[in-house]
Design brief:
227 residues; alpha/beta; TIM Barrel
């Protein structure tokens, strides 16, 4: 095996974003994240403060979404969301680009929208993942977004919300890794449900995956490693 359990677990952002999850289910999800020692929990914004409290003292980071899932919030609202999330203990923020403005070709707007959230987050010494929602974009738009994210210092570029019409494809991951500077990492979201798939995207240069099937992936990892 060319990996350790920790290397695989610390690739996973345990996703607790399904709008029908109850508070009880969110609590169980937080415990799963702690038990399996994943990279982070990406949770609905209203539960982030509780999430940060539950994860305090662990190596699992608290994260949430900004402008989720369609990216159409005004920039001022995205900034307010980011400020609230940071105040609630958020360490990594997954922000959706304004998909409408990307498709409209208004790159000045897109740049300013991204910059506003990235700047406020970095000022708090925390990190930003920028979600493209690739299923709606052409390659030229994805490449332009990679360039913008590199210019603005985003910490990750991310394929999808998991709530669009498609998820992480090999072609998109290769494109994003190829067209992003080395200091910008790549996150795959949507369709990473098995250890085999996680290892496939890892081989393409992905450092994080969004997953709701964390236990399935990591139980198989433990089994393979004889843990």
């Amino acid at each position: 095996m060319d990996y350790t359990y920790e290397q695989i677990a610390k690739m996973i952002d345990h996703s607790l974003l399904n709008p029908t999850l109850t508070a009880e289910e969110l609590e169980r999800g937080l415990q799963v994240a702690l038990d399996y020692d994943v990279a982070s929990v990406c949770i609905m914004p209203y539960y982030l403060k509780r999430c940060a409290e539950a994860l305090a003292g662990s190596t699992v980071k608290a994260s949430t979404t900004i402008g989720f899932p369609h990216g159409g919030h005004t920039t001022a609202v995205k900034v307010a969301e980011a400020e609230r999330a940071l105040a609630d203990g958020g360490e990594e923020l997954d922000m959706v680009v304004n998909i409408s403005q990307v498709l409209s070709g208004d790159w000045d707007y897109v740049r300013a929208d991204l910059k506003a959230v990235i700047d406020v987050t970095h000022a708090a010494v925390q990190k930003v993942k920028v979600i493209f929602e690739n299923c709606y974009l052409d390659d030229a738009q994805k490449i332009k977004l990679c360039a913008l994210c590199g210019e603005l210092g985003a910490d990750w570029v991310k394929t999808s919300t998991g709530y669009g019409t498609g998820g992480a494809t090999d072609a998109d991951l290769i494109l994003m890794r190829t067209h992003s500077p080395s200091n910008v990492q790549v996150k795959a979201a949507g369709g990473v449900r098995t250890l085999g798939r996680l290892l496939e995207v890892r081989a393409l240069g992905v450092t994080r995956v969004g997953a709701s099937r964390t236990t399935t992936i990591l139980d198989e990892c433990r089994q393979r490693l004889g843990l």
